[in-house]
Amino acid sequence: MKNGKRPSIRQKEAIKSAGWDPDNWLVSKAPPGQLHIVSRSGKSKKVIPA
After folding, report:
1. Which residues of the chain have pLDDT under 50?
2. Is residue 6 within 8 Å of residue 26, measured between CB atoms?
3. Alpha-carbon Rg of the chain, whole angstroms?
4. How many other CB atoms sit within 10 Å of the CB of residue 43?
């Protein structure tokens, strides 16, 4: 798996609207309409609408 990247401002807003703290998540993929995020500890993965 690729290393996650820090989320942009718009990505942070999407993560926050999904109910999670953007400071605890990294973006691994960003296909159109989705965000694949990984926790900073690397233990959990989620897919949210962008």
Report:
1. none
2. yes
3. 9
4. 7
